[in-house]
Amino acid sequence: MKLSVNRNIGAVVWIAGLLVPLVASNSWISILSIFAIYAVVALSTDVVLGRAGMYDMGHAVYFGVGAYVTAILNVQYGVPILWTMPIAVVVAAIVGMVLAAPMVKLRGDYLLVATIGFNEIFRMILINDVGGVTGGPDGIFGIGVPSVFGYSISSQEGLFVLNWLLLGIALVLMNNLDKSRLGRVFRYLKEDELAATTLGVNARYYKILAFGLGAGLAGAAGTLFATQLATVSPSAFVFMESVTLFAIVIVGGQASIPGVLLGTVLMFVVPQVFRDLAEYRYLVFGLAMIVVMVLRPQGIWPRRNRPE
Amino acid sequence: MSTSEPTLLALDNIGISFGGLRAVDQLNLEVKKGQVVGLIGPNGAGKTTVFNIITGVYKPTDGRVLWKGEAINGLPPYRVAQRGILRTFQTIRLFSGMSVLENVLAGKHLRTRQTWWAGLLSTPAQRREEKQLREECMEILKTLKLDHVANEVATSLAYGIQRRVEMARTLAASPELLILDEPAAGLNDNESAELNKTILDIRDSGVTVLLVEHDMNVVMNVTDHIVVISFGRKIAEGEPESIRNNPDVIEAYLGKDDDEDEQEAFA
Amino acid sequence: MDIFLQQLINGLTVGSIYALIALGYTMVYGILRLINFAHGDLAILGAFIGLTVITGLAGSGGAPANWIVIVAFVLAVLVVAIAGVLLEFTAYRPLRNAHRLSAVVSALGASMFIQNGIMLIWSPQTLTFPEGIMPQTTYNFGSVVISATQIFIVTVSLLLMLALYLYVNKTRFGTAIRAAAIDQDAARLMGINVNKVITSVFILGPALGAIGGLFIGVYYRQAVFDMGWIYGLNAFIAAIIGGIGNIPGAMIGGLLLGLFSSLASGYISSTWQQAIVFGLLILILMVRPTGILGERVADKV
Question: Which residues make Cβ contacts (< 8 Å) with residue A167, sequence separation at least 6?
Fold first, then answer.
């Protein structure tokens, strides 16, 4: 059973990751923290894009909604960080479903353009401080530290463990998705929507659900992102971020858990490490996207058809 | 087959236009429980369009589709499927990149109870159900002699096998009415003889069948009742024997249509 | 009323530029079903090349001579057309049979590459065009002002669009382009060299785009490396509004979008102009996703 071998390797790697703070420096811990958060967002993008096959190029919106919900609730209303997470998840999921509801009937490319539109409108709402709660172009500062059973988690190590736990939960959920009717229905819709509906699949329901789940998970990552940086600003949730998430899924491998994780490393972590390249960074980045696609059109680590 | 069986499906004066083209016009058709009904006609007669209307893929411009007396025209395809009407496609539509078993599991969609959150949490009940679904699907694959390819990628298999997989997928949904769109297309002689037997087995298991087919061998051997359409209109119907000798039907096939295959089919 | 007329004139100018750029999106989409995300950046590359030619040949001070401006346009068109062909050859052709999204990501990478290439070659800052590239004459009708530049841009754009329309609809090769857009395989069977058609589309589209990009430069008298994204996006929206894959649709969509966004910024809010444009797009997608003139892509059961 290949599946369980992969899963066991995954579990070992995850536990090994949990021990990294014992040996690594603070800067590495914070890079791994950021990796964990973006990996969750990338996995959540994959739910919509790679698994349900809907061209979502505005996923940073839901990540941003989660982050801003936490920032606003914590800074303005003093709600403890971890209490904001379920609210962030629910609000992001609702935003995702409401935006998706009129759009899911659209053919791929139209949906793609509509989601770009959502992302731009979201950015403008943040920058123009609609409702006076987003803090405008500067965003919101001074987000507190989470506490668990009365213990404040203020160290890099503590935050890392929190982020790593969410990644673990996301990985378990994705793994379960692969073995459930829900995961199969997403694939049926992706491969042939008409055939799926003639077998009784309510396409609209499941597509909106895919957006809700993907957005909700991104919202949870948003909470931890706001906590990790102690600040949120519009620039972290712009169209370019959505493009990067989109590219992670396609470059890594659609519906492939190791592929998406590897994609996250390449698209988010490597640029962090190679800051020395400075202004050449994005030139190389763009070139790399072309080269990877030409050499591996299915992605670096495509999903394999595993015999059951 | 006794004609006193209740009517399952009835098309009541169905018509549909695409732009200016009248693809189906004033069509009446009845399928009784337990029958195997054949819908035949020259290429472009509108047979697949009729299937698309029945299964909710197209909405008819006028007329009604009645399922056990209830109008189902205008319902989306998934609701039609919920009522027990399942179909195959003329151009096989298997889920590419997925195994035969995964394809057949799609047919189990309506027969599955697990909620989406039970799936995400992988509850013990959900895992039990998954195991059971797989066993049931393997049973269906066995009866169609497909169990040896259960884990192969469905779309990589030979054409004739893919047709059987598609049929297995619909059978997994335990249909009341099975609609087959040219099930013999692309099959060799052995496969099409086997298909005859399969269709009769399906009927004997209590499933009503409506099929479009060009292979007269299949049509004449398995159907109880045949409806012939040409240019969207019904031109004849009756028992296979009477259709074979109906001059209107022969003219529709031979006189106006010069497709070689059709001529051979009736020769 | 005067404000309305003034916004109408301004909108018509911007709209004809959108239309020029939109043509490149729609032609590529019509044949390859690919959103060429790098197209807006190619157009802006045209603006930068034009800027370099003008400042290089005219030196500092004084208005550049007419022939310099013509050389600027010609060189911008040539270089960008070559870039377009190279782009297709390296980034898209190898992916023609791959999953559609692989080509989309390749296009996004190409956009990033061109954008940052422009930044590295020219400048991360906004560059200004010298004065007097276009005649400075303005015509006043009451309080409505029309500049010679606007007349020039609208006239040349309309002529180019007419020429393209005639080329695609009246010539033999134009017929081949339309045939390939409807069904590539059938076109190939009819003896049409589809590769040649695709190459030609990657010459025509970027060439028109380069002219549009340089128009943006001389109209606003400035250029910055990353403006290809917003102009490209607007032009793409224009293509969708007109009906993606439809050449006259792109022209109409461009003009309408220019007028709409100009009126929106004049009457509703200039801060929210872009959001309003996206709102319009989303509305159109909900009501009539195939755009005003419809599209050539049909789903078949």
Answer: A14, A36, A39, A40
What gap in Å lies between CA C243 and CA C232, rounded to an integer? 16
Cβ atoms of C193 and C100 within 8 Å: the answer is no
Task: Report how many Cβ contacts below 8 Å link chain A to chain B.
Answer: 102
Q: Containing domain of residue C98, as a range? A: 24-228
**Is B69 among the domain residues?**
no
Tokens read off for B105: 């599991």
User: Residue C145: helix, strand or coil by DSSP?
Assistant: strand
Cα gap B92→A139, rounded to integer Å: 53
C-alpha–C-alpha distance, residues C297 and C300, integer Å:
10
- The burial class, CB within 10 Å (0-12 / 13-18 / 19+), for C127 is middle
Domain assignment present for C285 = no
Q: Is residue B55 part of a domain?
A: no
CA dihedral B101, B103, B106, B112 (to 10 degrees): 10
| Position C65 in a domain | yes
Count the domains in chain C: 1
State whether residue C234 sits within 8 Å of chain A by CB: no
Is residue C289 a part of any domain in this protein? no
Give B267's pLDDT tier (boundaries 50, 70, 90).
very low
Has residue C274 been placed in a domain? no
- Cα dihedral across residues B107, B111, B116, B121: positive or negative: negative
Residue B255: per-residue pLDDT: 61
Q: Which of C109, C274, C299 sits opposite A290 (nearest CB)?
A: C109
Range of the domain at B110: 98-174
Task: Compute the nearest-CA separation of B199 from chain A (Å).
Answer: 20
Closest CA in chain C for residue A105: C286
Q: Which residues does B contribute to its contact with A (CB < 8 Å)?
A: 55, 57, 76-78, 80-82, 86-87, 89, 93-99, 101-102, 105-107, 109-110, 112, 114, 116, 118-122, 126-127, 130, 134, 151, 153, 169-170, 173
| A113 interfaces chain C, CB cutoff of 8 Å | yes
pLDDT of residue C79: 98
Average pLDDT over residues B189-217: 92
Is residue B147 a part of any domain in this protein? Answer: yes
Q: Give the ipTM.
A: 0.92
